[in-house]
Amino acid sequence: MYRIVSANFLAENIKKIEIEAPRIAKKRKAGQFVMVRVSENGERVPLTIAGSNPETGTITLIVQGMGKSTRELNSKNPGDFISDIVGPLGTPSHIEKFGTAVSIGGGVGTAIAYPTAVALKEAGNYVITINGARSKELVILEDEMKAVSDEAYITTDDGSYGFHGFVTQMLQQIIDSGKTVDFVLAIGPIPMMRAVAEVTRPYGIKTMVSLNPIMVDGTGMCGGCRVTIGNETKFACVDGPEFDAHQVDFKNLTDRNKLYIPEEKQSAEAFSHKCRIGIGG
User: Fold this and answer.
1) Which class for 57: exposed (0-12), middle (13-18), buried (19 or more C-beta within 10 A)?
2) 77 has pLDDT over 60
3) Which of 57, 129, 261, 280 is the most exposed place for a label (fewest CB within 10 A)?
4) In a 3-state reduction of DSSP, which class is residue 206?
């Protein structure tokens, strides 16, 4: 069992949770994730480690409550326990001194982009961050991203805060300004990552994305998280989750992620019903 130390909402349905997991806290690196099982009979959910504190033995997860399991996790409070956490899993982000590195986070993807932005800064890069959200209320980790950035930009789809537009438009403006961009990391919804890849492709800018396919065990055994990279099949849990954006078959990724939408919706609705009648809170 793993005890929750702190938990607070950063935005609607997005919660920052700090959990006691000393072994993971000591070993984790930027880009890695954990498999979380909230209750003994629950499903395993992959969640990227947003941060850790080896001294206190805690890791930080930022969770968007979408399906049953993530909503159940977000219902937990300090002092509550989580059944299982396995990790750190996945290949860490490849970090080196690229020169000028742009870290892009879309929505809750900002929580995944943040630790890599920290590592890029520590490696001596000039770090530009672009934090995108649908509206001002959904912007997360603004201060944290600014703290590790040489330049930091906020974009909102509705123009309620920062730049009115998409992260891709801001990225294009940076490129058009004549600034040399040596590396781009984009993490967020699949359409956003695909769009970023198309912006950087003509310029030959090295671009990485963190993929989020359906994942069952996180160790390469089930094969559920297979993705097509170039002409090869890879497993996001062990070969990734970060891959060359210009080699990713985004259509295949999108199609596979849609396979269980009806079942996920049914499970989430059942959980909501339990919460309304006071059983599943």
Assistant:
1) middle
2) yes
3) 261
4) strand
Whether residue 12 sits in one domain with residue 136: no
Reported as type and span, the H/E element at residue 268 is helix 261-276
Give the rounded distance of the alpha carbon of 164 from its chain centre.
Answer: 23
Alpha-carbon 268 to chain mean position: 21
Band (pLDDT 50/70/90 cuts) for residue 59 is: very high
> Residues 242, 222, 209, CA angle at the centre, nearest 5°?
10
Contact 35, 46 (CB under 8 A): yes
Q: Is the dihedral of CA 262, 267, 270, 271 positive or negative?
A: negative
Indicate the SS3 state at residue 92: coil
Q: Is residue 273 part of a domain?
A: no
How many helices and strands in the chain, by DSSP H and E? 9, 16
**Contact criterion met (CB below 8 Å) for 244 and 207:** yes
Of residues 271 and 238, more confidence is placed in 238
Question: What distance in Å separates the CA atoms of residue 248 and residue 242, rounded to the nearest whole number?
Answer: 10
Number of domains in the chain: 2
* Cis ω for the linkage preceding 213 (within 30 of 0): no
Residue position matching structure tokens 């069952």: 216
Low-confidence winner among 41-45, 101-105, 207-211, 238-242 (lowest mean pLDDT):
41-45
User: Which carries the bigger pLDDT value, residue 139 or residue 276?
Assistant: 139
Quick check: 62 and 108 in contact, CB under 8 A?
yes
d(Cα 45, Cα 225) in Å, to the nearest integer?
A: 12
Output the domain CATH number for residue 131: 3.40.50.80
Q: Determine contact, residues 26/59, Cβ cutoff 8 Å.
A: no
Q: Strand 33-37 and strand 84-89: pairing?
A: antiparallel
Single-letter amino acid code for the residue at 123: A
